Amino acid sequence: MKRASDKTGESRQSIEVLQQRYQSLDRRRIQAETNLENARKELERLQREAREKYGTDDIAQLRSKLEQMKSDNEDKRRSYQSDLDRIESELTDIETRYERAGSPGEPS
């Protein structure tokens, strides 16, 4: 692994430069720890939300539930389309019978 000093070609750094590097690295460490803690809290929040909404926070079970929900939605969509097709067909049939019978007031 190359160090920063290797990249610059400088082999000897002053104590001030070393302290600055240390402080920079320490800030990065603190930021990384903060990010990690925030990520843990967000994970816990999402797990809690999943347990409340779906009864589990297990990824495999959630995926299975999602697939079941998609399947249920597709069944409902298919049924809705079928109902609309049936209603449209019945309406067309009524309109056709009405036209064959003639409009009221028209000579037949």
TrEMBL record:
It comes from the Bacteria. Residues 64-100 have a biased composition (Basic and acidic residues). Residues 49-108 are annotated as: Disordered. This is Uncharacterized protein. It comes from Caulifigura coniformis.
